[in-house]
Amino acid sequence: MARSNCRVLVVEDDGLLRDELSAGLAAHGFDVIGAGDGEDGARQATEGSPDVVLLDIEMPVLDGLRLAQVVQALAPEADLVMMSGHPYLCRAASDLLGPGVAVLAKPFAFDDLLSRLGDRHLPAPG
User: Fold this and answer.
1) Whole-angstrom Cα distance, residue 56 to residue 36?
2) How far is Cα 107 from Cα 119, in angstroms, rounded to an integer?
3) Measured distance CA(56)–CA(67) in Å, rounded
4) Residue 101 pLDDT more than 70?
5) How far is it, in rounded angstroms, from Cα 17 to Cα 91?
6) Maximum C-alpha span of the chain
7) How far apart are CA 60 and CA 79, in angstroms?
8) What CATH number labels 3-83+98-116?
9) Which member of 14, 21, 46, 61 lies 3.0 to 4.6 Å from 37 by CB, making a disulfide possible if both were Cys?
10) Which residues get modified to 4-aspartylphosphate (predicted)?
């Protein structure tokens, strides 16, 4: 996979935040897929072959913790980045899903998200 083709699935039920994250990632060269709830996120994770799944913990239909477990089972090669406005949910995500899962507490700076994606996911310059 070329670094400039890194596909990020953004699963967030807040449409405005999902759109802002998607636009910011796309502006940085990422191929972005969006989903508005956990059920759609599970479908997109299996059909869209994302390299990274950025997901909210609190969502209707299928919450982020359960979606993360589904993604780990169906698309284990995808990296997970969880986000929540509740610090206790961030700790729970780390405890339940293991140390390989990045967690961001909302609100966060966009640069913090980019640093969580790490060098292997950042698109090559130019």
Assistant:
1) 10
2) 23
3) 10
4) yes
5) 22
6) 40
7) 22
8) 3.40.50.2300
9) 61
10) 56
Specify the pTM. Answer: 0.86
Beta pairing class for 7-11 and 31-35: parallel
Tokens of 41: 């996120």
Which is it for the CA torsion 56, 19, 41, 27, positive or negative? negative
Residue with tokens 């979606």: 67
Q: Predicted confidence band at 1 (pLDDT cuts at 50, 70, 90)?
A: very low
Contact criterion met (CB below 8 Å) for 40 and 10: no
More confident call, 123 vs 10? 10
